Target: Protein kinase domain-containing protein
Amino acid sequence: MLLSKDSSDFGISLRAGAQENDFTLYRWRLLEPIPSSVTTSRIMLRLAKAIEYLHSIGVVLHHQFASHHVFLGSDLCPRICCSCSISRSLNKECKELFSPDDNIFSFGCLFYELYSGIDTRPNHSISSRRHVVTERPSVQEIPEYAWQLIQRCCAEDPKSRPSIDEVVKEMEEWHSFSRQGWASLRALYSVLSDLGRNWRQ
Model:
């Protein structure tokens, strides 16, 4: 299946293939310095919105969806190049390969990889991969809110995993809170600057 979509409303870019100067998410993580928490969450929010769009039109990614299926350009917008299928047309055997719940699990693994740089072994079983993502890495401190989301996405019981809509909503709240926090800090800085000028006068 080929799918192409560009939308500033979603903050995503989905394509059937990568562009010439794009890196896979895995390679980008190896080549770049350790990304900040803000950069990491921004990339993953865009990826979550991409998956949300796919699920909304009935498209499900392969259960081994991994970092080498995600490409990043200079704009850091994820571009997905992965086997997928229409969920409504799946028979029982195919549903084992194309499951929205498994897409959530893969998203959690990618989030973990981007923070830690540790390969979560997408070709292994879910139980084997869970053994990796439940170990909190010491390479970079993962914020508690991100760590908790990763663990919920990678829950052993698929029914305990959030939907992609819930993931997007939660991550958007992080960014909203972050913007409000910076606005408050700028306002405080302005007040302190005024007090300093008045004191010097």
